[in-house]
Amino acid sequence: MGTRTRDRGIAILRILVGWVFFYAGVEKLLGVGLDAGKTWSAGGFLKFATTGSWPGAAPDAIINPFHDFWVGLAVNAQALSVINVIVPVGEVLIGTALILGLATRFASLSGVVMLGLFYVASWDFSLGIVNSDIVYIGVTAFLGVVAAGEVYGLDPYVERLRFVQRAPALHYVLG
After folding, report:
1. End-to-end CA distance of the chain, in Å?
2. Cα–Cα distances in Å, from 69 out to 30, 50, 54, 64?
3. How many Å apart are CA 164 and CA 66, to the nearest integer?
4. DSSP letter string, 93-115
5. Over the stretch 57-88, which tens digit does the pLDDT of each residue have?
6. What is the pLDDT of residue 1?
7. pTM score, two decimals?
8. Is residue 51 helix, strand or coil?
C-alpha cells in the first residue's frame, strides 16, 4: 500500500471519528430525540447507568466501584450544570478539531480522556472488557500518535505560523 493510500485512510479515519464526536455533541445541544421543551442532561446516565455490569451478576447489583461518585455528581446541581455544558461542548470542539485536522494531538488526548471517563462511568463488562468504548479510545489515541492532522488537515499550516514557531511546545498540541 502506498503512502498516499495510507494518508487517505488516516484522514478518513480522523474525519469519521471527528464526526462521531461532533454529532454526539450537536445532538445533545439541539435536543435531538428528546420530547419538546426538554433539554439533554447527564443526570439520568449518572444516576441510573453507572451501576455497571459483569457476566453472571444480578441485574440490580452495583458493580461499578465509583457508582456513588457518579450519583453524587448527578445530585449536585452545580456539578451537573457544569457537566451538562462540558460534555456536549467538548464533544463538538473535539469533533470539529478532528474533522479539520486542527490541534489534532490535543483533540485526540481530550477525546481519550472523555471516552475514558465514559468507559469508567458505565463500567459495562457484560460482553467482556473490550467493547466499543475501548475501540473508540484506541482509535482516538492512534490519531494523536500518528499526528493525523498532518495528513490533509490544517495542522501543517498552523505550524508555519510565527507564534507557533516561537513556542516549540505548541508542536505537541498540533499534529
Report:
1. 23
2. 28, 10, 19, 10
3. 40
4. HHHHHHHHTSSHHHHHHHHHHHH
5. 888 899 999 999 999 999 999 999 999 999 99
6. 59
7. 0.93
8. coil
